[in-house]
Amino acid sequence: MKTYATFREIRNDLQQGIITCEDLVRYHLDNIKKKFHLNAFLSVYEEEALKRATEVDKKIKEGKAGKLAGLVVGLKDVLAYKDHPLQASSKILDGFISQFNATAVQRLIDEDAIIIGRQNCDEFAMGSSNENSAFGPVLNDIDNSRVPGGSSGGSAVAVMADMCQISLGSDTGGSVRQPAAFCGVYGLKPTYSRISRYGLVAYGSSFDCIGVFGKSIEDIAIVLQVVAGADEFDSTVSRVAVPAYTDELKANDLKKKYKVAYLREIMSDGLQPEIRDSIVSKLEKLKADGHTVEPIDFALNEYILPTYYILATAEASSNLSRFDGVRYGYRTNNPADLHEMYKKTRAEGFGKEVQKKNFTRNVCAQRKLL
């Protein structure tokens, strides 16, 4: 089967009977098996995906298929998918099975997308290289000696290596944008609250966003149009009407000229030369195409990273407090008492990167509360 650049091409061939959803699923499953060494998937739902494909094929023939019929999707291991494992790539959630669907996942299913598997990531989405997973690192398909970026490394690699057409990831401080760049695919981190966070394992609740990986901007627009919007299960989600993103793409006049700004501070000598040269080249191309390109100053630039780490680690500490071995997941063997169970469970269940960010645990340990 050929590699499809866009979902539009897939739908066209499905409608003409050139391919079936089952063909698509088998194609992606074959790629997952061939590139198993990349460690992008933690679970592959082979039988279930094939059964679902058969159901969607029938819907297509009957003219009852949803907007995403034929779209094969992978889920980062921080998104709830009912009756399937959910571990945030952490030992502390060993054996945990999700009891419901995340809103974004449910909306994909409602439009006949096919979920093919659960994707590796940095533990609790904390990392930028996908080397902090309890299941081992994810490798970059371009060069296996390079990292794919993180924390959504498995999701980016899965799209890059054609293991699925679309992946859902999450972005707290760059976890969709950075791996998309490292892997040469498109990655969208939408405006905070554009997509409901219901069913997303929390890292930093005031930063977390569900994002989308794809091979084309058009595909991402289609998916965003489906998963975005108000949700009664998330009080923080935006209630602003969801635009018809795909129509806006079609209506976009390529002759229209835009005003583009970039931060002057980022073009410093500290930037990797290859990256700086690539940015400069893109800016020059925009100018040559008639767009207005201007540098702007942002005086608070030096405070961005420390501010993020103060807030994100504080929120992470609060969110991680629920993982204690009492109700679900991993529990240490034969603790002497309740305090020792808490302490050993969290020490054994959390990886080093998560422990660094779990300030509450460190403070409690110092006060001999754990």
Question: Would you mind describing this structure in some detail?
Answer:
By secondary structure, the protein is an alpha/beta fold. It folds into three domains: 7-251, Amidase signature (AS) enzymes; 259-299, no CATH class; 302-366, no CATH class. Helix content is 38%, strand content 11%. It has 13 helices and eight strands. It has helices at 7-15, 21-34, 46-62, 103-110, 153-160, 177-183, 217-227, 245-251, 273-288, 304-320, 338-349, 352-357, 359-366; strands spanning 41-44, 72-76, 114-119, 166-171, 186-188, 209-214, 259-263, 292-296. The strands form two sheets. The protein has a six-stranded mixed beta sheet with strand order 1-3-2-4-6-5, with helices on both faces. A two-stranded parallel ribbon has the order 7-8. Helix 4 links the parallel strand 2 and strand 3 (114-119). Helix 2 (21-34) packs antiparallel against helix 3 (46-62). The longest helix has 17 residues, at 46-62. The chain starts with 6 loop residues before the first helix and ends with a helix. The model is unreliable at 364-370 (pLDDT under 50).
